[in-house]
Amino acid sequence: MFLEMLALPFNVKDKIEPEFFSYPSKSMEASVEAVERIINYKFRNKKLLEEALTHSSYTDSASYQRLEFIGDAALGCALSNYVFLAYPSLDPGQLSLIRAANISTEKLARVAVRVGLYQYVRHNAAALDDKVREFALAVQEEGDSVLYGGSVKAPKFLADIVESVAAAIYVDCNFDLQVLWVIFRGLLEPIVTHEALQQQPQPVTLLYELCQKDGKHVDIKHWRKGSKNIASVYVGGKFIASGSSDEKEIGKIECCKGSLAEAVI
């Protein structure tokens, strides 16, 4: 039962008895073994994990793109089950916010950095290394408390890797959602809770909601200045605050944070 699963009452290794084994290529043996230790799961078909750790720039083998497709859906379903049972009094909109916060690109990319998945991914794109290095430094400075985007935009391919590893587990254990959640809940910790979202509402959403209640119109304007994306907030036609970043969405979040800090609503 899924309710029993939430308390982790069983040993995953006892539940899954391998029926066949498939081994990775020689060049990926060490990486596959390392990731198995990270996630605390032994694959029957280790080729699945090899595929999950292969970026599309590495053209000599199948990439994680196909697995990413099912991993996104499987994690979403596992989170849906969890929040539905954990929060029986919340409405669908509130449940959706909790689910989204726990499987967002930001969240999953931070998981990839925290557990060190990227170092085991094979690719032929040197630019990826620079993006991960920059993001990892930001994560190290900011910690796990950032819900809506930190100072550096989360590289989507990091989240894709996490989803692909989830898919590899899901397929390997015969599409058992319970087993997937038992394994992945530990990787997703700390789980973003309803209480955390109440304490840290999404800045853009909160700004619009507060202004709507007060009958004020919000307008967010964007433009570029050199390499920076600038965003400015106008409430009722009046300039309130601006924010800037290399990434448009982060600039938008920063200017809304500034507007809320001005307490003009």
Automatic annotation (TrEMBL):
Pfam family membership, one: Ribonuclease_3
Single GO BP term: RNA processing
Matches recorded under PROSITE patterns: RNASE_3_2 (PS50142)
Claim: Hydrolase is one of the keywords in the record: yes
GO molecular function annotations of the record: ribonuclease III activity
InterPro entries: RNase_III_dom, RNase_III_sf
Record keywords, A-Z: Hydrolase
Keyword Ribonucleoprotein: no
Location of the RNase III domain: 32-174
PANTHER family from the UniProt entry: DICER-RELATED, RIBONUCLEASE 3-LIKE PROTEIN 2-RELATED
Name recorded for this polypeptide: Ribonuclease 3-like protein 2
Organism encoding this protein: Vitis vinifera (Grape)
